[in-house]
């Protein structure tokens, strides 16, 4: 999925125009939506259509900024780059009128080196080299001592007195239990635990930033400095990087019919075990990493480069929770690619006081699992008979546990059918006995 943040050259402009043309064609094609409607509920398709419109509008804005820059008006391009240090350098080069070759000559580098830097938006550059290029381009370089130091880099870790030793011990214990570190890593204790854990986490933060927001309620919590969440995210990203290294399939926003095939997997006894490979075939990486004790997290969705990554903890080992959480996070990928996926969503799906985006993800998950039109007309909604519910599930091509879980939630009574939600049937596919 082409999502550059800003368009900076003709190659990117051509890619953006091609992506925009595909979206425009899809939005104007009745046949395109008829095919989707044949598999997915109208409510889901409507939300998906809005996501495509949002994507179209963003690409139009990016292309407009690029075309304006070609005419000498850099205002919008500068605005787009303002929050990305790598983009700032590239835009600065363009506004100064330097080619990549000319900038390389000024720096005493080969043109290919500038090309490599810019191809990944300067993500791989060292701080000293970034500063050197910034000076040549006239980009102001400032370093300030914040009254709230970033606890994840250098001495910031030790300055952050609110980092509790108990939390560090908790993360290190979890990391050892689930084999985060190399087998030949030294025994960790005391100060060495802090240092080793910091090294494990810091490169991930440099590449991808901190998790920032835990979207668990109406008041979105700032969790950017929560050690448990940051460590969990770093682990998920490291695993995802390994998977991505051999992955060639790219995610396409113009294909969601596969969601019904995904739901049908729930009917199989080993359905959860098949999900990872299935999603990978559609360009989405799934990483299941147990929750660290004390971290109230069910799932997450974020971008690693341009690749959507879903992380799950299986905090509640039930089939209904697994499938609902998975579809909730997929909702963020499908619907919110343009409106937050780069920052990421980190979710506690048991929260009831959720914001509009989380409500939309909940509705998407519910509607994909059990189409609203079928559900509203079914006696399964009000029956006390397990047999009636199981019959409905078979007709809807979904595991009965999903329906029993839906009934528990709608009736607000988790004691009913408590033995029917597939308890103990998920973790065994992902975690060894520890």
Short description:
The chain has 434 residues and is mainly alpha-helical. Helix content is 53%, strand content 5%.
How does this model look, in words?
By secondary structure, the chain is mainly alpha-helical. The protein has two domains: 10-137, no CATH class; 207-223 and 245-429, no CATH class. The protein has helices at residues 10-27, 30-37, 42-70, 75-81, 85-96, 100-107, 111-119, 127-137, 156-159, 165-177, 191-208, 227-244, 258-264, 271-280, 319-335, 356-369, 372-376, 386-395, 400-411, and strands at residues 213-214, 221-222, 285-288, 299-304, 307-312, 345-347. Strands 3-5-4-6 form a four-stranded mixed β-sheet. Helix 3 (42-70) crosses helix 4 and helix 11 (191-208) crosses helix 12 (227-244). Mean pLDDT is 85; it is low at 148-161 and 212-224.
For the residues shown, what is the average pLDDT?
A: 85
Specify the overall morphology.
globular
- Unreliable residue stretches: 148-161, 212-224
How are strands sequenced across the largest beta sheet? 3-5-4-6
Radius of gyration: 24 Å
Described by its quaternary structure, the protein is single chain
Count, helices: 19
Helix content: 40-55%
Q: How much strand?
A: 5-15%
The structure class reads mainly alpha
How many β-strand runs? 6
What is the H-and-E element order? HHHHHHHHHHHEEHHHEEEHEHHHH
**How many structural domains?**
2
Q: Report the biggest beta sheet as strand number plus sense, adding barrel if it closes.
A: 4 strands, mixed
Separation, N- and C-terminal Cα atoms: 38 Å
């Amino acid at each position: 999925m082409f999502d550059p943040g800003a368009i900076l050259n003709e190659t990117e402009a051509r890619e953006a125009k091609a992506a925009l043309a595909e979206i425009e064609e899809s939005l104007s094609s009745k046949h395109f939506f008829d095919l989707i409607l044949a598999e997915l509920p109208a409510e889901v398709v409507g939300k998906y259509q809005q996501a495509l419109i949002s994507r179209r509008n963003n690409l139009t804005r990016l292309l407009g900024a690029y075309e304006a820059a070609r005419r000498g008006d850099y205002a919008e391009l500068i605005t787009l780059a303002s929050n990305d240090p790598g983009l700032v350098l590239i835009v600065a080069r363009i506004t100064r009128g330097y080619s990549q070759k000319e900038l390389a000559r000024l720096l005493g580098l080969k043109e290919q080196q500038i090309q490599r830097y810019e191809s990944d938006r300067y993500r791989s550059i060292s701080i000293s080299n970034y500063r050197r290029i910034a000076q040549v381009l006239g980009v102001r370089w400032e370093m300030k001592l914040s009254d709230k130091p970033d606890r994840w880099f250098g001495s910031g870790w030790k300055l952050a007195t609110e980092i509790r030793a108990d939390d560090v011990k908790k993360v290190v214990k979890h990391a050892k239990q689930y084999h985060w570190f190399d087998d030949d890593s030294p025994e960790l204790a005391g100060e060495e635990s802090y240092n080793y854990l910091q090294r494990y986490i810091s490169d991930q933060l440099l590449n991808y930033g901190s998790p920032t927001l835990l979207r668990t309620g109406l008041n979105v919590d700032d969790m950017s400095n929560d050690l448990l969440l940051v460590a969990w995210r770093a682990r998920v990203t490291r695993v995802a990087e390994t998977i991505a290294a051999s992955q060639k399939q790219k995610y396409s926003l113009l294909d969601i019919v596969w969601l019904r095939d995904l739901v049908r997997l729930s009917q199989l006894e080993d359905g959860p075990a098949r999900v990872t490979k299935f999603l990978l075939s559609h360009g989405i990486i799934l990483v299941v990493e147990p929750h660290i004790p004390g971290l109230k997290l069910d799932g997450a969705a974020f971008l690693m480069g341009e690749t959507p990554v879903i992380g799950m903890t299986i905090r509640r080992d039930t089939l209904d929770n697994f499938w609902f959480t998975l579809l909730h996070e997929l909702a963020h990928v499908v619907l919110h690619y343009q409106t937050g996926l780069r920052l990421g969503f980190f979710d506690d799906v048991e929260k009831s006081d959720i914001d509009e985006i989380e409500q939309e993800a909940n509705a998407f998950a519910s509607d994909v699992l059990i189409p609203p039109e079928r559900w509203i007309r079914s006696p399964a909604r009000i029956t006390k008979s397990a047999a009636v519910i199981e019959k409905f599930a078979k007709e809807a091509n979904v595991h009965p546990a999903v329906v029993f879980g839906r009934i528990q939630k709608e009736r607000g009574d988790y004691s009913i059918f408590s033995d029917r939600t597939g308890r103990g049937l998920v973790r065994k596919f992902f975690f060894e006995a520890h």
